[in-house]
C-alpha cells in the first residue's frame, strides 16, 4: 500500500476561504453512479471532479481526459512506483487510480472535490481522509443491477459474470459509508446526493 498524505496537509492557509472537502461516490458497477455524477456536475459546475486514470479501453462516447485518462498498464504501474496515486485498485482486470497532486491542491484551495471510484479505492480514501463524505449508491435490487449491466451491451459474458460476482461482495460494504442512496428513481437519487453535499 502506498503512503498517503494525511488530511492535515489539505488544511487551508487562507482564513477567509471556506475549507475544501472530499466527497467519495461509490457503488457496484452498473448502479448508475457515472450518470448521477455527470448530472451533478452539470447542475453544479463549482464542483471539482477528479478524473481517474484507467487501463481499460474507452467505451463509446468516452473522452480521454474528461471521462478518464486512458493509459497503458505499464505506464500505470510506473505511476504506482512513483507514488503518483492517492489511491488505486485493480477491478475486472483493469487498474483505476486517482491522481494525487491535483486533487490535494483543489481541496487545499477550498473546493468541493468529488470522486467516483470503486469500493477498494473508496476504502483507501476513507482511511487517509476520515473527514471525507462517503456516499454509497445502491441498486433497487440485484436483478435490476444485472439488467442494467447487460443493457449496456459493452461487456463479454465472462466480464458480466465477474462484475456481478464483485457486485455481490460490494453491496455487503454499504454500511461502511456515511450515506446510502438507492438509485431507483434517478431524479430522487440525484436530489438526495445534492442534499448531502449542500445541506
From TrEMBL:
Gene3D superfamilies per UniProt: Guanylate Kinase phosphate binding domain, P-loop containing nucleotide triphosphate hydrolases
Q: Which Pfam families match?
A: Guanylate_kin (PF00625)
Q: What are the protein's UniProt keywords?
A: ATP-binding, Cytoplasm, Kinase, Nucleotide-binding, Transferase
The Guanylate kinase-like domain extends over 20-198
GO CC entries: cytosol
Q: Where in the cell is it found?
A: Cytoplasm
Task: Write the Enzyme Commission number(s) for this entry.
Answer: 2.7.4.8
Q: Name one GO molecular function term.
A: GMP kinase activity
Q: Which reaction does it catalyse?
A: GMP + ATP = GDP + ADP
Show the CDD domains listed in the entry.
GMPK
Task: Cite the binding residues for ATP.
Answer: 27-34
Top-level taxon of origin? Bacteria
* HAMAP family the UniProt entry points to: Guanylate_kinase
**What family does the entry list?**
Belongs to the guanylate kinase family.
Q: What does this protein do?
A: Essential for recycling GMP and indirectly, cGMP.
What's the protein called, per UniProt?
A: Guanylate kinase
Q: Which organism is it from?
A: Atlanticothrix silvestris CENA357
Show the taxonomic lineage: Bacteria, Bacillati, Cyanobacteriota, Cyanophyceae, Nostocales
Amino acid at each position: 500500500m502506498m503512503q498517503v498524505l494525511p488530511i492535515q496537509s489539505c488544511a487551508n492557509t487562507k482564513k477567509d476561504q471556506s475549507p475544501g472537502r472530499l466527497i467519495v461516490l461509490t457503488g457496484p458497477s452498473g448502479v448508475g453512479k457515472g450518470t448521477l455524477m455527470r448530472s451533478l456536475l452539470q447542475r453544479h459546475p463549482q464542483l471539482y471532479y477528479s478524473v481517474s486514470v484507467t487501463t481499460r479501453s474507452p467505451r463509446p462516447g468516452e473522452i480521454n481526459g474528461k471521462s478518464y485518462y486512458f493509459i497503458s498498464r505499464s505506464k500505470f504501474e510506473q505511476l504506482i512506483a512513483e507514488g503518483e496515486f492517492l489511491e488505486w485498485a485493480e477491478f475486472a482486470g483493469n487498474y483505476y487510480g486517482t491522481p494525487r497532486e491535483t486533487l490535494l491542491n483543489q481541496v487545499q484551495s477550498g473546493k468541493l472535490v468529488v470522486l467516483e471510484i470503486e469500493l477498494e479505492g473508496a476504502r483507501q480514501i476513507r482511511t487517509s481522509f476520515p473527514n471525507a463524505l462517503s456516499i454509497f449508491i445502491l441498486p433497487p435490487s440485484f436483478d435490476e443491477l444485472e439488467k442494467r449491466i447487460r443493457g449496456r451491451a459493452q461487456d463479454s459474458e465472462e466480464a458480466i459474470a465477474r462484475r456481478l460476482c464483485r457486485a455481490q461482495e460490494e453491496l455487503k460494504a454499504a454500511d461502511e459509508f456515511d450515506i446510502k442512496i438507492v438509485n431507483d428513481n434517478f431524479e430522487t437519487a440525484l436530489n438526495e446526493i445534492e442534499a448531502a453535499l449542500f445541506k
